[in-house]
């Protein structure tokens, strides 16, 4: 470290408080990156503010000294949005995790950005309410990060993305200014809804320093239905039939390749004996006999039509959990094959064709690759996973996967889909952004960034250059 | 009309097509304003484009000639956002009303901006689906206008605002550029969601030229419950109790003053004999005995607690319609008293105090004024109406109401509420915008406008100067 950083760090400590600044190499490593592992963390320092004023002080300091700032939440991101590779100051929100101002009539609660997703879910439960955005990393991801990346997950079909649960936002922009956006109102048609820009903005416009989150009534008697289908068109027909009659809380899918790996490598049981190419996992609130009857009728209809080859419905909470385990253990199970992963989406109706086209190109070019499909099919969101063949070194595999990415994104573009359904762009996908957003849109985004962050200090280099 | 406009109009006709341009004084009057009547229309000309290309041609023409453009939908707006007072070209979408590309799996449909709300509602019904955004002007308001003003209405508590139903948007910005935003995707985390800026942007960033709208399953066996309450705290307690157990499709309220006028001046019957100061109108899907039982238990609980003094539940569609008529006829009934109107919101839990404070100041300053309250209380959205006393001329009344507006907006600010819950800002409320949005926010909005509309030709002078 040369003299300039040393002086800078002293000044930073003066601007915030010495106890808030970390510069040891373990901290720089830990706070300098997210769950992606493609970049080498190299931040200047880590700041752990404990108040909005301290966040503002860091931003003003960074602006005066023209240093980049990288926000850091639970660091569970999968697109290298919370990665500091270039001497930035990382602002981590671990010290700001208070939940306050719960209001039972509004069903809202105020969260500091460092509140862990699970902490909010538990808080809601204690109040006989429900925070519905849920995903694999809920135990460590933070609300600020969830909002900045507009996190999705397994209940989007019923409850939407994180965007739909943010009724108020306090942010500090790139000028150090504090904005209080929307204050928890349901209806507020007074000009541009600036809150929406910070949701999914990946910290490039400013820091989220407080959020008012909406809660809802808890679901009752959740029941799952696992259906085995011959092909993806069957899965689509099942979706259409059920959506017309039942309010689904989830509609997930995965392939036999996925299920067989889970069954082989974990305690999870096969839901029924018949292996089928694809499985749909539906969940709904089983609150009356009328609903049970409707679901059974739909199930029989799907069998008669040949869309469903076999199926099972959970009769207890433990059976519900077992069915979910088939889906939830996939990601963990396949890590041993150091898989290539991609998170993409198209409109729901195009999924079968889209999936087949990707299958085709990968099978043709790299017949030794095994594809594991799963995802939130009710939202058109597919998680593409390719297992590394033992015959290839990691490097060879990654090199081939770069080609796969390009083919996949070309198909995404052809289908007017998204190169990142729920994981964001960060550093990982910015070179591919034009496959989903036009040059004109990217220019407009740059223009908007300049309005909020005239010096370009907020998470520089993320989403676009 | 001097020579310059004549030449301009000739050029405009060349740029678009003569048949698309109207300049007769009836058309200028008709297309030059919305439902507000405070401004004198004075547009240069009306253009009725029939394609995206024609819209782009008008924008390029306006940009070259530095002429303002005003969008015009169904002209049912209540904040003078679609009013041309200053030699602008009005772009009306009456010729662009095609519905196309319905997809039953995605449950989406593509609308040109001139599609009437009711036309979309009927289209959905024919497909056994439902477009849930509904309000008094559904018979003439257009989808483009609904989106530009983020229209709300009577089902927001269950279905949200128009914002929640727009899955794709094509817009023409102030440079004439066509943007295709989000293409109908459920999940698309690839940078700033520009679509959100155009929703509720009141045409100040660009024109909406196509929208992909989401549909949903139709509600089943809708049933209404009308409850009479002693005071607003009772109404709040009813809301809290019901929301915990039942998915409400509406939660409206109105005062005895409102109901008595409706009963007196229309065919509508009182729902029950006991007059009570306030009424809550709840609606839900009555799809099983379990739900009916829950609702009856809640009703009895509310009676025991003293929150409800009397009540009635609809047993048929005609009874459902009669109960709704009590609420829906209010606006029409009170027009004979040329009422002052204001559309404001606070967070739901603050409504009783907020309403009382406005009552107090108006009663104290103008004891001769009669206030009629009604609104979408489940969203914290109040419609304040004050009847003109016979003793005052319209001019005297309006003058006094200007004072009322100021007091109301001061109270809105104190309660961190919105000066426009669902009607937008337009010309009518722009002078009051700072009561809800900070100067910093307004500056940022100006910055954003400059990015999309560098010459300031898109609906100039609306929302802010």
TrEMBL record, chains A, B:
InterPro entries: FAD-bd_oxidored_4_C (IPR004113), FAD-bd_PCMH (IPR016166), FAD-bd_PCMH-like_sf (IPR036318), FAD-bd_PCMH_sub1 (IPR016167), FAD-bd_PCMH_sub2 (IPR016169), FAD-linked_Oxase-like_C (IPR016164), FAD-oxidored/transferase_4 (IPR051264), Oxid_FAD_bind_N (IPR006094). Residues 39-218 form the FAD-binding PCMH-type domain. It holds the Pfam family FAD-oxidase_C. Keywords: FAD, Flavoprotein, Oxidoreductase. Its cofactor is FAD. Belongs to the FAD-binding oxidoreductase/transferase type 4 family. This is FAD-binding oxidoreductase. It comes from Parendozoicomonas callyspongiae.
